[in-house]
Amino acid sequence: MPLLKREGLELYYELTGTGAPILLIQGVGVTGEGWRPQVKGLAGEFQMLTFDNRGIGRSQPCTGKITIEVMADDARALMDEAGWQSAHVIGHSMGGVIAQQLALDCPQRVRSLSLWCTFGRGKDAARPTPWVIWMSLRTRVGSRPMRRRAFLEMLFSENYLRSSNLGQLAEQVGRIVGRDLADSPPILMKQVQALGRHNILSELGRLGDIPTLVVSARHDPIAKPEYGRALAAAIPGARYEEWPDAAHGVTIQEPDAVNRRLKEFWSGLE
User: Fold this and answer.
1) Under a CB-based contact definition with an 8 Å cutoff, are residues 131 and 248 in contact?
2) For the chain, what is the radius of gyration of the CA atoms?
3) Cα–Cα dist 265/15, whole Å
4) Do 134 and 233 touch, CB atoms closer than 8 A?
5) I need a labelling partner for 69 at 20 to 30 A (CA). Which of 95, 106, 158, 217 fits?
6) What is the DSSP letter of 53?
7) Residue 129, phi-psi category: left (phi > 0), alpha (psi -120 to 50), beta (remainder)
8) Domain range for residue 24?
9) Calculated CA dihedral for residues 81, 84, 88, 94, nearest 10 degrees
10) Does the pTM exceed 0.90?
């Protein structure tokens, strides 16, 4: 089992495939397995580095800090471990915020940024709106099927859920995110708090030399399209796209389309 020893923990990671290096960073409550649809579709042409953020999955126990800056440094250390001087970096949700911080800290290490369903202000993700409070309660209270249903509602649009077998979908998504959707990992609130303390929107103008793709999903209740538009506007030259029929779980719901778009973006740059 590949582990990188860091102060206070050991980081679990996987390297798959050959080709141009791709670093994939996951969001709140999700292990590196959350990138399985992308690894499966792209590892034939790219080398993919996935990992469990500190404190979740196989990167625990964690006695060190949980901050966006520290998690960005974890990502940098994993690039060193892989022997990469630079890589294309993709981040989803909190992973997108980590990717932005990595690019600010080490711009020469980042060939491009692909930022999916994410934010420039972490507090936008952590803001305790009535919807957030209600959904947080629903993922923790009630029967296990009810809690799984609440999690699915955070990832997928109403139309998509109406046309799906919810039991089968919950099982499929659980395998991808690395846990039963009825169970919330203990680290989840610490990750949310780390997001809430983080705000780098005013610094993103320094990333104009890094080719950047920002993608929002129209029905995303967490990383709303308005957040994606603000993020893209803050990075000089960033491309902004809004996917009309998806929500926060777009990388799971539409893996083939996501993989094609990533391949087009990276291949064009290479």
Assistant:
1) no
2) 17
3) 21
4) no
5) 217
6) P
7) beta
8) 3-269
9) 20
10) yes
Whether the bond between 61 and the residue before it is cis, its omega within 30 degrees of 0, is yes
Mean pLDDT in residue range 72-76: 98
Q: Within 10 A of 167 (CB to CB), how many other CB atoms are there?
A: 11
Residue 102 tokens read as 């990595």
3-state secondary structure of 192: helix
DSSP, collapsed to helix, strand or coil, labels residue 130 as helix
**Nearest by Cα to 96 from 77, 71, 78:** 71
In this structure, the number of other CB atoms found within 10 A of the CB of residue 63 comes to: 10
Secondary structure class of 240 (helix, strand, coil):
strand
Residue 188's CB is within 10 A of a number of other CB atoms, namely 17
Residue written as token pair 């690894």: 39
- Per DSSP, the three-state class of 193 is helix
Within 140-254, where are the H helices? 144-155, 158-162, 166-177, 188-196, 225-234, 250-253
Do residues 240 and 20 lie in contact, with contact meaning Cβ atoms separated by under 8 Å? no
In sequence order, which residues have a C-beta less than 8 Å from that of residue 237 and are 6 or more positions away?
A: 208, 211, 212
Residue 240: pLDDT band (50, 70, 90) is very high
Q: Which two tokens mark 267?
A: 């291949």
236, 138 in Cβ contact below 8 A? no
What is the number of structural domains in the chain? Answer: 1
**Residue 141 — very low, low, confident or very high, per pLDDT cuts 50/70/90?**
confident
- With a cut of 70, say whether residue 114 has pLDDT above it: yes
